[in-house]
Amino acid sequence: MTIIEVKQLTKVFGHDAGRAIPLLEQGMSKEKIAQELKLTVGVNKAEFSIEEGEIFVIMGLSGSGKSTLVRLLNRLIEPTGGQVLFKGKDVVKMNPEELRQFRRKNIGMVFQKFALFPHRTVLENAEYGLEVQGVDKKKRTERAMEALHLVGLKGWENHRPDQLSGGMQQRVGLARGLANDPDILLMDEAFSALDPLIRKDMQQELLELQSRVKKTIVFITHDLDEALRIGDRIALMKDGVIVQIGTPEEILIQPANKYVERFVEDVD
Ligand code: ADP
Ligand code: MG
Q: Which residues surround ligand 2, an ion (CB under 5 A)?
């Protein structure tokens, strides 16, 4: 079943960004728009569906628009145009209260730098999202403990982040993202700051976790190996546009164009 359907989603940065839309429609290049209108096209006409329970990877070089795209899904960045349908309901049209509910109930986020508070315990860090949402202490402790258990950090609740290894700190970040039991977990370069070996462990752990909790995961990475290892499907971005969406096999065996071909050519 489709959980997210994205239609014609565009984000242009800059004052009076809407001016860029008709010009993009007419085929004006992003370089020209940047030059003449002093506007940056972060994402243009992204169109895709995410199925419930899959790991959907957004891959691309730095600056290709991955973070912009994933933040558009829950309107941490406001779209300039297009739709984001969550189970058929347009997130772009939600009023502030509906949006708050949507983020609280349906979305969890995990970031690259873990964004942990050094002076708080592991448990307090895992609870943080729930705290912001105003969940009462008893309930948020219960849920955060459950999430810490899920990521294998039972027994570490009262430690501080600096007493944990990098991989464990990232698991605290993961627990925080899972604490509200969201339908969708958004992970933006979540493993990119980890050492290569720890990173591989985390990829494996995420796959195992996924098979247990069956969340829908939108996973951003600039790393092809990581994308191939964990993605059910991969969307490859270039200059704010998705150039191909496919399973790892499809991306490797049937690259849609020269760019994808070059992107994957070093894989054996
Ligand atoms: P990625 O996550 O793939 O590295 P981003 O989504 O961060 O890429 O950026 C995509 C494009 O959007 C880049 O060209 C970047 O310069 C531009 N961009 C991102 N955020 C802003 C902003 N706040 N203002 C202007 N341009 C931005
Ligand atoms: Mg990014």
A: 67
Question: What stretches of the chain adopt beta strand conformation (E)?
Answer: 2-13, 40-51, 55-60, 81-86, 89-90, 107-110, 184-188, 216-221, 233-238, 241-246
Q: 167 CA to middle of ligand 1, Å? A: 27
Binding site membership of 125 for ligand 1 (Cβ less than 6 Å): no
Mean pLDDT, the chain, integer: 94
- Spatial CB neighbours of 138, under 8 Å, sequence gap ≥ 6: none
* Beta-carbon contacts of residue 129 (< 8 Å; ≥ 6 apart): 108, 176, 177, 179, 180
* Residue 13, φ and ψ in degrees, nearest 5: -95, 140
The tens digit of pLDDT for each residue in 32-43 reads 999 999 999 999
Distance between CA 166 and CA 239 in Å, rounded? Answer: 32
Residue 114's pLDDT band (boundaries 50, 70, 90)?
A: low
Global pTM reads 0.94
Quick check: CB of 60 below 6 Å from ligand 1?
Answer: yes
Single-letter residue type at 52: E
CA dist., res. 183 & res. 4, Å (int):
11
pLDDT for 93: 98
- Cα(124)–Cα(137) distance, integer angstroms: 10
- DSSP bridge partners of 233: 56
How much distance in Å is there from the Cα of 110 to the middle of ligand 1?
Answer: 19
Of 20, 25, 62, nearest to 39 by C-alpha is: 20
Which two three-digit tokens encode residue 153? Answer: 């950090």
Contacts of 211 (CB under 8 A, 6+ apart): none
